[in-house]
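Hey L., structure's done. Input below.
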Amino acid sequence: MYRFNNPFDGWKSDRQQTPSIYGALPYPGGSPNASSSTLSSFTFTAFNPNIMNCTIMGPDSTPHMYIVTDPAMPTYTLFKNANNQNIALIEWQQHPLVEVRGKLVKQEIRQWLSLSSDRKSRRMRVSGTSYSWSPYGETINVGPLLSPSYSKRSTRRISRGRESIILELSSHAVQSDLHDISIVATFLLQCGRNID
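Output:
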């Protein structure tokens, strides 16, 4: 029987991993200070036919959120919780807009997830803290920009599986109620649409 090679299989290496030079990003295979039990995984799955319509499974393997783009209204993408309540809205237009109920007022995505000056990462500001979403090997990692209030506990990571996208959040990020905002940002970074 033929088996596909898992491109992420190399992360299970026994060799010692070294931290990134920035210190704000987790190790590719997890941090020695953060076991997998301290990370909560949100899995984008059941693409219909793609991430524009999918289910996000929570850490307990039950549906946490749904992303819905109605073909009759393709200029809107809704994020609904498990109780079918609207959590966030994307308006697809020349300069797309994003809104996360109670957390982020409606604004242009390019302002909220702005490109860094070197165009290699995106910056996001939430509740007075700035974060940087940066490619790191096969993942996109996020952590607070270096500042006096820097905390390693706020790290997040996006990785791709064969038929899923996985957002891993530290327990601090979940306790700080950053999971819905992080899910919306993950969607925007992975949807393949122009967000500027």
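Residues 1-36, 147-154 have pLDDT under 50 and may be disordered. The radius of gyration is 17 Å.

-- N.
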